[in-house]
Specification:
The complex is a heterodimer of chains A (260) and B (397).
Chain A lengths: L3 H9 L1 H17 L6 H21 L7 H23 L6 H5 L6 H28 L11 H25 L3 H15 L11 H7 L3 H14 L6 H25 L3 H4 L1
Chain B lengths: L2 E13 L6 H6 L7 E14 L4 E5 L6 H8 L7 E6 L3 E4 L12 H11 L4 H15 L14 H12 L6 E5 L7 H16 L3 E5 L3 H7 L2 E6 L2 E7 H10 L7 H6 L4 E2 L4 E9 L8 E3 L4 E14 L2 E8 L2 E7 L9 E12 L7 E10 L6 E14 L21
Parallel strand pairs in B: 3-7, 3-8, 5-6, 6-7, 12-18
Antiparallel strand pairs in B: 1-2, 1-4, 8-9, 10-18, 11-13, 13-16, 14-15, 14-17, 17-18
The chains are: A mainly alpha (260), B alpha/beta (397).
Chain lengths: 260, 397
């Protein structure tokens, strides 16, 4: 948990976390010819499809729709990828759990870090696109790291809880995929929130990911700093998710080696 | 005190029906799962002082590895306390975290980090690790393209770079060829000299004898002894569990023949304490006691014995060959075949006993390889039997 002694212990293991994350990251691209370009190509291809569908068929009118869409996809991908990779973080590495000891949350932190590395690469593509479309960020962009960090905390919290549950209930991974699919459409990624009537907007915005993504878009593309209440709202969500995630993880962790 | 284990219990709960999914759990909610409990460790107590080299021995399933895993913090005890002071390294398996698609260099980095080396240490020692493993030319080769021998060497060279205060070793020596084992022994010597507290689980009693000051003997999860190594090993070998003899009688028909005028009724192996046993240490005394019952008076029957190792006929002799006249035999009695220093070295030996007329023309009873015993090798000699010998070197001859 977040006890000072555990945090100190984790600090002692930071080199291991980075090494595990980095080697996982490299492994993802080792066997493909296009190597790192895959990570860039994947969201771009998706962007192309979605752009064609939504801007022409559904006639969505948003300023910088391409960038709006790309940023949404990249940010959602981070959540989807981080949690999906982490869900296998324990059961996918039996020898690291059964044959050696280090705090097991390290495995989850490092797989979230791998997802982060992949997302950072996608940010590079995004920045290139911003340059192409000549969108200059304003000072509001300074909020970006902070809000993105809050998303990271949410991803970590979800990952901890899900990976631990998946050791005991192997269908959690499938259930989670369904939830992610639903979330992809329920979160305003492809469309602006304004397509809904006001009442419905409030309900949709209860989803912390919806707020995070809209704040990140606002500060990146539309020179708008986040509202204080929104920040508080997502911060509380992030803290609760991390806390619950850790509680589940700590509760289930002692028997990981027996249950894998 | 660097390692202390106090009133340690470990129980595994084994569900009769494994429910792996949420779905199965929901369905089974109204039908509680039955659990069988399996107690693998019962009240273990011992302590290791700094620099102690402690062996843990016992039959398969006696709880040795579980004990080691609990000390390593991989499994949690059901009851009891464990204290470990200082930096601990555990070699329950070599090459934990090795990935076939990473290169040799990358794998060294990950594995070294997993076993607790810092980045700086890794940087300083990578050169040495690769050199020691003899893989200089293969630094950039993917691990999956190396032979398994090379992989073990790489894992081992990396593992020995840790400098822990407490070391846990589980049967690592079981793999590898002689040269590799020798390397392991050298490293053990080094750790011993450096005063690393070591817990060593092994089946290889010879290396336990060689390195361990004290040894813990487990039997069905119970701590039978924790004492000086030679005493504990003796206890292990000369005080085995009761074994089930039921199987022997079934096979007796096929493997026994003769006219039964003089029957062999029982054969027992006796150890140096004159106790019945079928485990021996090479070089120790052994007696084979052959019980007989003669239905009629027979003059000077010849009792014989043959030792086999697998299908090798090792040695055979009779009372007659050794000039022992059995005289006139009638009724019951026994004959002792006595060995002062057992020359058999290592492994399981099978025994045939037989009795025939003095001219060997009539076979009274023949028990073909019905009996067996095990021999443990306390030395580093190799092979199935030992030759009483010494080496002498002359220079400038």
């Amino acid at each position: 948990m977040f006890t000072p002694s555990h945090l100190r212990e984790l600090r002692g293991y930071r080199e291991l976390i980075l090494r595990l994350a980095w080697s996982d990251f490299k492994l993802r691209y080792k066997n493909s010819i296009l190597g790192f370009f895959w990570t860039l190509l994947e969201p771009l291809l998706m962007l192309l499809v979605l752009y064609v569908v939504f801007s022409h068929l559904m006639r969505i009118q948003v300023e910088y729709y391409q960038l709006f869409l790309l940023l949404g996809i990249v940010l959602w991908n981070f959540l989807a990828r981080g949690t999906t990779m982490s869900i296998f973080g324990i059961i996918g590495k039996p020898s690291l759990v059964q044959k050696v000891y280090f705090p097991r949350d390290i495995l989850i932190i490092s797989s979230c870090a791998t997802a982060l590395m992949m997302t950072l690469l996608e940010f590079v593509v995004f920045i290139a696109f911003m340059a192409i479309f000549r969108v200059a960020p304003s000072a509001a962009i300074l909020y970006f790291p902070l809000i993105f960090f809050i998303e990271f905390v949410i991803v970590l919290g979800l990952s901890l809880g899900l990976s631990a549950l998946n050791v005991y209930f192997r269908d959690v991974q499938f259930i989670w995929q369904v939830i992610l699919q639903a979330g992809f459409f329920a979160t305003p990624l492809l469309y602006p929130i304004t397509i809904f009537p006001v009442n419905l907007q409030k309900i949709v915005m209860l989803n912390p990911m919806a707020r995070i993504i809209s704040m990140l878009r606002d500060c990146t593309l539309y020179q708008t700093a986040p509202i204080f209440e929104d920040m508080i709202y997502v911060t509380i969500w992030a803290m609760v998710i991390l806390l619950v995630g850790y509680l589940i993880f700590d509760r289930l962790e002692p028997r990981f080696a027996e249950e894998i | 005190m660097t390692v202390m284990v106090k009133n340690l219990w470990k129980t595994f709960k084994i569900p009769q029906e494994r429910r792996d999914t949420l779905f199965e759990n929901l369905i089974g909610f109204f039908r509680p799962n039955q659990y069988e409990t399996l107690t693998v460790l019962k009240d273990i107590n011992f302590a290791a002082e700094e620099g102690d080299f402690i062996g843990i021995i016992g039959d398969n399933g006696s709880g040795k590895s579980t004990l080691l895993k609990i000390i390593a913090n991989i499994l949690r005890p059901t009851k009891g306390e464990i204290e470990v002071d200082g930096r601990m390294a555990s070699f329950l398996e070599l090459g934990v975290g090795f990935h076939p698609d990473l290169t040799v260099l990358e794998n060294v980095g990950v594995y070294a980090s997993v076993i607790g080396l810092s980045n700086r240490e890794i940087e300083e020692r990578t050169e040495e690790i690769i050199e020691f493993a003899g893989l200089r030319k293969f630094e950039e080769t993917k691990l999956k393209n190396l032979s398994s021998g090379m992989q073990v060497r790489l894992a081992f060279s990396t593992a020995v770079q840790t400098d822990p205060d407490v070391l846990l070793v589980d049967e690592v020596l079981a793999v590898g060829d002689m040269e590799f084992q020798q390397k392991c022994f050298d490293v053990f010597e080094r750790y011993k000299k450096e005063g690393v507290t070591t817990l060593f689980v092994s089946h290889d009693l010879a290396s336990v004898r060689r390195f361990c000051d004290k040894t813990l003997l487990l039997r069905h999860g119970e701590q039978v002894a924790f004492d000086e190594t030679s005493r504990v090993v003796d206890e292990y070998i000369y005080n085995p569990e009761e074994k089930n003899d039921a199987v022997d009688t079934v096979e007796e028909q096929k493997t026994r023949w003769g006219n039964m005028k003089l029957e062999i009724t029982d054969v027992r192996f006796l150890d140096k304490y004159d106790k019945e046993n079928d485990n021996f240490i090479s070089g120790d005394p052994m007696t084979v006691r052959i019980f007989y019952h003669s239905h009629e008076r027979i003059a000077s029957p010849a009792f014989g014995i043959v030792f086999y190792y697998q299908d090798t006929y090792c040695y055979g002799t009779t009372t007659d060959f050794k000039g022992c006249d059995t005289g006139s035999v009638y009724g019951t009695g026994y004959v002792d075949f006595m060995v002062e220093k057992l020359p058999l070295l290592d492994g399981r030996f099978e025994v045939t006993v037989a009795v025939a007329s003095s001219d060997y023309k009539v076979q009274y009873d023949w028990h073909d390889r019905l009996y067996s015993f095990d021999v443990q090798n306390p030395t580093r000699d190799l092979g199935i039997f030992s030759i009483d010998c010494e080496w002498r070197l002359s220079k400038d001859a």
